[in-house]
Amino acid sequence: MLNDAADLADFSYDIADDGSGLPARVAIFAEDEGLRRQIGADLGGAGFRSIDGGSLRSLLDGPIALLGDVVVVDCAVVGARGIDGMMLAGLARLDMRVARSGAKLIVATTLAGLDDVFAVLDQSNPHILIAPSRAERLIAVGRVMGEAGAARLREMGEEDRVALLRLSQQVEAIAHSLDRLSHGAAVFAPKLGEHKRDYHAPEAGLVSGFGVAQPPLPDPQMVRQMIANRQARARFFDPALFGDPAWDMLLDLTAAHGEGAQVSVTSLCIAAGVPATTALRWLTQMVESGIFQRVPDPADRRRAFIALSDKAIAAMSAYFASLRAPVLQAA
Hints:
Elements: E1 11-13, E2 25-29, H1 33-45, E3 49-54, E4 64-66, E5 70-74, H2 85-101, E6 104-109, H3 114-120, E7 127-130, H4 134-153, H5 158-181, H6 220-232, H7 245-259, E8 263-264, H8 265-272, H9 276-288, E9 292-296, E10 304-308, H10 310-322, H11 325-330
Parallel strand pairs: 1-4, 2-3, 2-5, 5-6, 6-7
Antiparallel strand pairs: 8-10, 9-10
Helix pairs in contact: 5-9, 6-7, 7-8, 8-9
Protein name: DNA-binding MarR family transcriptional regulator
Keywords: DNA-binding
GO molecular function: DNA binding
C-alpha cells in the first residue's frame, strides 16, 4: 500500500534486483482490489515481487511511494461518461512521478477509454494495453524489464527499436494464429526470422528546408481510395498476410491532413488494422522517431490528437511525387 512514512519526500524510490541486476519489483494500482490481487498472483507466479499500490484515487493526496522500477495500472471506463475524472487526475500525477523516477509505466484500459488515458500520459512514455489478458500483462512486464536491461548495455538505435517492434508484432501474430488453429481456422503465420529493418529516415534532399521545393500531397480522396483498396484485400486473403500498421497509419494521417481533419488516437489505432495494443506500440515508435506528433486539443485538456510531423509531410509528398501516374491510379 502507500507508504505513509515517506513524509519527507513526495516520491521515494527503492530498486530491487532479481539476482541478475534487473529490477524485479512491480507496483500495482487498480480500483478493483480483487484485480490487484490477481495481477500480483500472476506476477508472483512469473517470479516477480509485487507491491499493492491501491486505487488511483488514493494517489491524489499524500506522498507516492513506488517500491520498484515497473508500475502496472488498470484504468477502466466507469459508466457511460468514460473514465472517472478523479482516476484520470491520479493517473496524471502518477505519470509525472514515474517520469521523474525513470521507472516504467504499463497502463491497461479499454478502447473506449484510450483517448482519455493517452491525453493525460504525456511525460512517462508509457506502454498502453487495450483490454489485455492476464498473459498479455505479464508479457508487457517482461518486455519493459527487457528494455531496461538493454538500456544498461547500450542506447537502442532507431532501427533496433523498429526491428523489436516488428519482432513483437510477429510473435503476437503467431499467438493469434495458434488461437485460430485451436478453432480449426486456416493459418498464415510469419516466421520469426523474417523481421526487417524497413524504416529509413528521408534523405535531406527530400525534405523542405534544405533548398529543395516540396511537391504537394495528393488529393485526399485518392489517398482514401488507396486505403479502401488495401482494406479490400482482407475479403480474399488472410489479413495477417498484409500487416503493415505503420504504412496504414501514415496513409490515414496523410488523407486527414489534406482534409483538415483531426485524428484521435482511437481512430488511428482502428485505421492501423491490427490489435489496438500493437497499433499503440507502432504509434509510440512513430512519435519517438519524429514521424508523428502529438497535438493537444486547446479546447479540452483531456484530449490529444496525432498528426504528421513536417518531415513526414515532406517525405509523403516526395513519395507520391515519385510514383508514376499509372501506378498511382492503380494503387
